[in-house]
Amino acid sequence: MPLIIRLQLWWWLTLGRRAPALRLLDQVLAQRPNLAEALATRAHLRAEAGDRAAAVADLTRLTQIQPHQAPGWFNLGFLQEAQGLAHAAADSLQRAVTLDPKMDRAWYGLGLALLQLGRTEEAVQAFKRNTELQPLSPYGWTQLARAYARQSQDRDVQRVLSHLENFEPGVAEALRRELISNPPAP
Fold first, then answer.
1. 105, 136 contact by CB (below 8 A)
2. Could you tell me the CA-to-CA distances from 107 to 23, 73, 80, 118 in Å, in that order?
3. Tell me: the pLDDT tens digits for 66-106?
4. Is residue 62 packed enough to be buried (19+ CB in 10 Å), middle (13-18) or exposed (0-12)?
5. Where would a tag sit more exposed on the chain, N or C end, judged by fewer CB atoms within 10 A?
6. What residue stretch is flagged as signal peptide (predicted)?
7. Whole-structure pTM value
8. Is the pLDDT reported for residue 118 higher than 90?
9. CA–CA separation, 4 and 163 (whole Å)
10. Residues 139, 108 contacting (CB under 8 angstroms)
């Protein structure tokens, strides 16, 4: 994107003026519809504003323009998962981790989408990969325990809870209470 456009965007966003920033991006994209940076920025601003459908449309276009760039697929999958579009999210996030196997957030999102689809064993594998890449983040561990609980793998649930107690004892205790009071359906 030209420097002058970036500066104008920065100015509008610094002032907290999202609407003029979006109008500027609309103008840029009307002239250069395949400008990846403008599409990604507009998608981000639209998602922040709660217009997920428009953000998904921008990110879909971005992934068509840059099919070999993992971040576009991750962002698309993230929004699809948030909208409950589990099949589409799983496809997008699988594409992201194929392109960048070290993208821990994409593995996490893939696990969430796979859980929504009832593909628990595959979700376990995705969460395991996420926890390998982010061993001290409680999020992947928490979801891994929930996936194990769905499979009635109590020994694995206990192993994850014990691991969590080492660095996030509050999270481990809350998860233990959750799994006892509201066990997941297999």
1. no
2. 34, 12, 15, 16
3. 999 999 999 999 999 999 999 999 999 999 999 999 999 99
4. buried
5. C
6. none
7. 0.89
8. yes
9. 51
10. yes
Domains and CATH numbers, the chain: 32-119 (1.25.40.10), 135-186 (no CATH)
* 3-class state of residue 33 by DSSP: coil
- The tokens for 74 are 């991750």
Distance CA 64, CA 133 (A): 28
150 vs 94: CA distance, rounded Å: 22
CA distances from 47 to 50, 53, 64, 86, 101 (A): 5, 8, 19, 18, 25
- Helix and strand counts by DSSP (H, E) for the chain: 11, 0
CB-based burial of residue 45 (10 Å sphere; 0-12 exposed, 13-18 middle, 19+ buried)?
Answer: buried
> What count of other Cβ atoms lies within 10 Å of the Cβ of residue 14?
9
